[in-house]
Amino acid sequence: MQVTNNSLHVTPKFWKTLYGVINAVPDENAVTCSLENYGEWVENELDLLTELLQEGATVVEVGSEYGAHTLCLSQTVGSGGEVHVMESDRLVHLQLCANIALNSLNNVYAYLSSNRKREMTVDELDLGAFQLLKVNTPGALVNVLTGGRELVQKHKPYIYFRLSSPQQAQKEVAALKALGYRCWSHMAYLYNPENQASNQTNYFPGWAHQNIIAAPLESGMGADFEHLREI
């Protein structure tokens, strides 16, 4: 019997990034294209978020993207902090776990958040602290908030997420304001002219993630976001 499965001939790739080594099975998507050509992924997002985090903070990421941002967040919060990453795709989750091990990230915890029977929720993490919720999956915020209402109301973390459509954005912003949050628009360009690979070829001309950063009313963070447009 002859084996003809093409997947047997797929070789994982390894990319050296600013924050460590990322491994992924070759695929045609924006994340792997950026990692391969620039050694980074939407660095504009990290520029904003790392300014909000202190050593010892706890972060929850929903949607792992192979851990492209997890490595940076792990370094930012340090050995006293924690990064919890929820990934619904089983194969991407396995690659995330491989990258956690490759970089010896003792403060990162990975979860396969979806299976054939049920969806894992943020509240199930039962965190003692919670400073940032980062939702990488566009359009997922409302469901994430529904499953994380207890922790969000208790700890009032910063919330950063990617938009999908105007109609969904209205629901997401309304849900955040109902929880006592202010919201600001943040445009994150996929191409960074100062990328760590010094690659001046722009593979993402005009491409950007339209994101929102949200902070609880009582945080007094308005002055820190003066350069952004409040929604």
What is the succession of H and E elements?
A: EEHHEHEHEEHHEHEEE
What is the CATH fold-level name? Rossmann fold
* Rounded Rg: 18 Å
Please state roughly what percent of the residues sit in beta strands, choosing from under 5%, 5-15%, 15-25%, 25-35%, 35-45% or over 45%. 15-25%
Which superfamily, in CATH terms, is the homologous superfamily? Vaccinia Virus protein VP39
Number of helices: 7
Going by helix content, strand content and strand pairing, the class is alpha/beta
Profile the largest sheet.
8 strands, mixed
CATH top level class name: Alpha Beta
CATH architecture: 3-Layer(aba) Sandwich
Main features:
alpha/beta; 8-stranded mixed beta sheet; 7 helices
Question: In short, what is this structure?
Answer:
With 231 residues, this protein is of the alpha/beta class.
Explain this structure to me?
Strand 3, helix 3 (70-77) and strand 4 form a beta-alpha-beta unit. The protein has an 8-stranded mixed sheet with strand order 5-4-3-6-7-9-8-10, sandwiched between helices. It has a single domain, classed as Rossmann fold, CATH 3.40.50. It has 231 residues and is an alpha/beta fold. It is 27% helix and 24% strand. The protein has helices at residues 30-38, 43-49, 70-77, 90-102, 141-146, 149-155, 166-178; strands at 13-17, 20-24, 58-62, 82-87, 108-112, 132-135, 158-162, 181-189, 208-216, 229-230. It is built from 7 helices and 10 strands. The longest helix has 13 residues, at 90-102.
